[in-house]
Amino acid sequence: MSSPIRTSGQLGPALRALRQLRGWSQTELGRRVGLSQERISSIERAPERVTVGQLLTVLMALDGEMRVAARAPSPPGQGW
Predict the structure, then answer these.
(1) What CATH number has the domain spanning 8-61?
(2) Residue-range domain boundaries for the chain
(3) Count of C-beta atoms within a 10 Å radius of residue 41
(4) Would the CA dihedral through 33, 37, 38, 40 be positive or negative?
(5) Using CA atoms, how far apart are residues 59 and 40, in angstroms rounded to an integer?
(6) What's the N-to-C CA distance of the chain in angstroms?
(7) Could you tell me the pTM of the whole model?
(8) What pLDDT, in 10s, does the model give residues 17-60?
(9) In whole angstroms, what is the distance from residue 31 CA to residue 28 CA?
(10) CA spacing 20 to 30 A to 73: which of 29, 40, 59, 61?
């Protein structure tokens, strides 16, 4: 599974999907990374409030990764 994440609103569902691909509950993921089920739920619901360290720890447990890359330029008149 690979999808570009450009907003925090896209990150939560992507993390949830990775967790579900593993067949893990939030409790199981939390056990594996030393966080409570409530914290995992919070990360999936509001990922903008997670530390980079926690995000990377969760991604490692899910065998996921974070990549930082430049996007292709937008056509003239669109984008930033």
Answers:
(1) 1.10.260.40
(2) 8-61
(3) 16
(4) positive
(5) 12
(6) 28
(7) 0.81
(8) 999 999 999 999 999 999 999 999 999 999 988 999 999 999 99
(9) 5
(10) 59
